[in-house]
Structure formats: C-alpha cells, structure tokens
Amino acid sequence: LQALVDSERDELSQTRDGCRVMVLVNSGLSPDADMAVNQGADGVGLYRTEIPFMLLDRFPSEQEQYQRYSEILSAFLPNNVCMRTLDVGGDKELSYFPIIEENPFLGWRGIRLTLDHPEIFLIQARAMYRAALETQNLSVMLPMISSIHEVIEAKKLLARAWKEVSDDLPECSMQQPKTGVMLEVPSLLYVLPELAKHVDFWSVGSNDLTQYLLAVDRNNLQVARLFDSFNPAVVRALSHIQQQSQACTIPVSICGEIAGDPLGCLLLLVLGYSELSMSSANISQVKYMIRRVRIDDLVLMREQILACETAEQIYQYLFQYIHELD
Ligand code: PEP
Ligand code: MG
Questions:
Q1: What predicted TM-score, i.e. pTM, was given to this entire model?
Q2: Which ipTM value was assigned to this complex?
Q3: Ligand 1 within 6 A of 208 CB?
Q4: Annotated Gene Ontology MF terms (predicted)?
Q5: Would you state the pLDDT for residue 173?
C-alpha cells in the first residue's frame, strides 16, 4: 500500500468528480531539503520563518534573511510561498532572546512580540520583500493575531518596509505582496467580516485554534486525549470559518496538522475547504485520499457531521465512508 500511496506524489490532486484541491506544504527547513521532498506540492502554504532563527545563536541580519528567503522563493517558482512573520514565544524559544513567563501560550507570542519590537519585524519584512522583487511569488502572513488592531498596526509596518524596498528601485512596477493572517485565536471567529476588510487571505492554524478553543495545552501529554480537532466545537468553528470566507470572498486555507491527516483532510473536504497545507511527509497520503473521493458525496455528509455530538461519531461517519470507497 505504501508504494501505491508514494506513487501518488506527483499526480494532480483532483477528486474523482474533477474538483481540484490545492495541496501545499508546511516548510521551514533548508531549501535543498525542501526541494527534495516537496516536489508534489502546489506551493508553500506556511513557511515557518522562526525555524531558521531557532537554529542560530543570534538574530540573523537582514542580508542573511534575504539570502534564505530568496532561495526558498526561487526553489518553489512558479508556485506561491506564504511566509509567516516571526512566531516565537509559546513553545518556540530563541536561546539569545529568553522569555520567562508563567503562561507562555497566553503570553508574549508571535505578533505581540514583534509589534513591541518593530525593528525585528521591519528587518524581516524588508528581507522578504527584497527577495520577492526577483521572484514575485511571496505572500506574507501574520501569526497569533487576536484583534483587528494588531492587523492595522502590523500593516503599517509592512507598508513602511515595502516603501523602503521599492523606493530603492524607481522603475519598480510590482505591487506590494499580499498580506494575510493566521486564524488561530478564537476571538477572530467573531469578527471575520470586519477582518476581511483588512486582509487579502487567511489560513486556519488548527493546532493553536484547537488548543485555545478547548483550553488544552497542545504539548501537555497529561491532557493530550482532550486535544482533538474532531471535537464538534472545533469542527463547527472550522465550518463557520469556511462559510464566512465564502461570504466575504476571502481565500481560505488550513495549515494545522489536521490538513495532513487522512481522516482530517476528508473532514475538511466535507466542510468545503480546498486548500490544504501540511508537512511534506503527509502529501502523498493526502493526495491518495483526494484522488479517491467525490466532492458530490462528501458535501452530502456535511449536515450529519455538523450535527454530531461527539468526536467519535464524526470519526465513525468518515471511517464508514472510507470503507465504502471502491
Ligand atoms: C497552527 O497553530 O496550527 C500552526 C500551523 O502554527 P504553529 O503550529 O507553527 O503554531
Ligand atoms: Mg500556530
């Protein structure tokens, strides 16, 4: 079976009834490694920029960041690369920038930290934009956003960085790359129409969204059994996001672990998602699944799944569907 699954890697990710599903990769490793393993991806749905920062013992310079981002952007041409601005704090530590907190997942994380240190944010944004001038396949995503105010403030900094970069090239006709946010803090779910006025796209971070909706530390083994993205509350939240994205005509993707899980990707197709971003190791199994299902059948399961009271019932529905596939 594994050989069969692996052989799917370079096939088009399309359902039996002809619906194209974008299969994107979550990345953060060196471009060579990424190139080697990600050939089956339709682009990068999440480039975790903090990973290279975590491998160093000091902040990388603008030039160092520029070089790395150029390599990544070129490696994935002509596909798009969605780079997330620095998401440190929580469980992601920088040895050279220690943060001591009682409650790190509710603390100084992601955009909160970079808005307090605009110099870190501006250097990174300039490095990304300089790299994108050559390849034009960048979009920028903001992590850990919990209010529209943060989006407005971060966009001011991004506009400043873009101006500095493009002013250096008087003949530059390129538009500023698109800006989006991670949907991973539950508060945003209640302000999506307003948020839509400020962003070009969004991507669901189901790892953190599950953690914050269920109040379950994503890394605490003691409560690991409660961390379940199939919990009906999470599933209804994912459905709400998909429906609101359609109503607001905002492109939505999902880049948490659920997208790379065989049953998880099925659930997302049922809910109407069509852009899934995952670790490269999961690409072939997800493609295998996509190429065996019919969207027409899956959408019929939507109401039943949304009516489920327990995660087990949702798993059962999806298992049953898989067993009935020919
Ligand atoms: C997420 O929270 O789902 C996500 C993709 O971001 P990270 O896992 O890097 O926090
Ligand atoms: Mg996250």
A1: 0.96
A2: 0.99
A3: yes
A4: kinase activity; metal ion binding; phosphoenolpyruvate-protein phosphotransferase activity
A5: 85
